[in-house]
Amino acid sequence: MFTPAARLRHTFSELEAAMAALSDLITQAADTAPVNACCFPLPDVASGDEHEPVTHIEVARLDGAAAITATLDGYRQWFIRPGCSTKASFRLPGYLVLPATLKPELQALTEDINRLKGEFKAQVQEAESRDQKFALVHDTLPGLITLQVYRQLVLLPHPVSRLGFTWANKQIIQKIDKDKLVKQLTDARLSPPPLTDAQTWLQCVDREIYDVKRLPPGVELRLRRPVKTHPMVNVRWREDISPRQQQVKAHLPLLLCQDELPAVTALGNYPPATTRKRRAARITDEPLIPRLHIYPYRPDNTKP
What we know:
By secondary structure, this protein is of the alpha+beta class. The chain has helices at 4-32, 64-75, 103-125, 130-140, 146-150, 178-188, 198-213; strands spanning 36-39, 62-63, 94-98, 160-168, 171-176, 220-226, 230-237, 245-249, 254-257, 263-265, 294-297. α1 (4-32) runs antiparallel to α3 (103-125).
């Protein structure tokens, strides 16, 4: 009977073997035919700087063999790096375009890798508490950053006509049901966070429940949570597919299998020289529950 640590170590070993097979496939493809590859390395975030506001990001560029090497290293960037923040995850936007004939083999490999990543995550989540999860991972694989292991590789399913790299700097805005929020808060009353006095926590949550219940009937709730600046890529399919364009997170280089190269808009420095004007935010009140990013929202019912 395997212990949780032994199971986790075994799954990680299988993942490493699958990643080595992917690396061999891509390296052999590059040795026999031109592989169009490009990636945009981002500066490391120093330990302690992860909460500093992002005002500027200088983007580098690698092409050809250097981009392939950076990509294969980036796919296996799973451990803490000296001097780098463990809270600001590693990102390497980019792409590799491989011959269309390799798609069946590449698809099987990426599916196997992503399956193993999912199994690894599920095994970590079996540990009951946050502290137990942390101990399981770091006693078994010291220095591992789980988010970077969990990230799935992306093999685009259709031929692509254009890749447009850009920056996302948005907020998540989501409608919140009052009754569900009250239930969530009620359930949280008896689960104070670590290092928090139980009585203080009860008073805090009870106040939040009271604030929600006393809202006038016409006021709704919205979650408005800021999202850290991160690279994205707008993918436009070559075929007549609906929707014709899709936005994908550019955490790691995308894999494409096609013989005709897509047009590419490279990732530029942040902030872009020109930005699209957006409508002013309609949720401008002070937060009702700051720790959960919950805001009151009054719909505009004045339209005819």
